[in-house]
Structure formats: C-alpha cells, structure tokens
C-alpha cells in the first residue's frame, strides 16, 4: 500500500507529474485560472474555511492565531468529510492547491497539518 504524502502548492504553479491527486482547497475558484487548464482532480470546498470565517480573517489578517482555532473547530465539525477524504485518498500523493500567496500563513497550512494528524490517528 502506498503512503499518504501531502503537499501544498499554488494553483498558479505549473502542474507536475509528482503532484499526484490535485485538490483545490479554496472556497472560491481562483481568478485568472481557466478550469480547463488547472488540471484539478477534485474541488474540496467542504474542507475549506466557511465563507463567514474567510471573510472574518480578510477583514483583519492580524486575527490569524484566532483563525487557526476557529478553522480547526470547523474541521472538527466536518470530521465525516475528513474521514471520507482520507479513506478515499489517504494512500497516495495529494497536492492541496490554493491561490493564496503565503502558503505557510494561510488556511492551507492548517488544513495540511490537520489532515496529516488525522491520517496518523487513523493509521
């Protein structure tokens, strides 16, 4: 059985063979990206921050530490979707795609860490 490998990448970067399953993890489709060119295998809106939470953070980016806790709580509330995602794709390479510029200070870093912990817990 293959090992779960989770990567993050901007959707504006060129697709690569090593990306594996390309999963868009943004609630909104990225500007300037044609769906035909994006090579997205799955759009996982259910794993992204809610509209209200996303808007709340954008109003004041200094709230990031609070955002981490609130988004983690949302992911906990969607544990069924997380388990489903891991059961379907947890044995392969998955690249989480996003339009954000700062991957390490965004929802994508939180999602990656959450999925990795959940995968370890289910192993």
TrEMBL record:
Pfam families: DUF488-N3i. It comes from the Bacteria. PANTHER family: CYTOPLASMIC PROTEIN, CYTOPLASMIC PROTEIN-RELATED. This is DUF488 family protein.
């Amino acid at each position: 059985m293959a090992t779960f490998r989770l990567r993050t990448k901007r959707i504006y970067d060129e697709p690569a063979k090593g990306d594996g399953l390309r999963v868009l993890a943004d609630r909104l489709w990225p500007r300037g990206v044609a769906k035909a060119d994006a090579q997205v295998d799955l759009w996982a809106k259910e794993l992204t921050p809610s509209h209200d939470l996303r808007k709340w953070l954008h109003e004041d980016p200094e709230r990031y530490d609070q955002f981490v806790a609130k988004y983690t709580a949302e992911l906990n509330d969607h544990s069924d979707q997380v388990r489903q995602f891991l059961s379907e794709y947890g044995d392969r390479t998955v690249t989480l795609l996003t339009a954000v510029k700062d991957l390490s200070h965004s929802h994508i870093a939180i999602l990656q860490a959450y999925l990795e912990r959940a995968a370890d817990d289910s192993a």
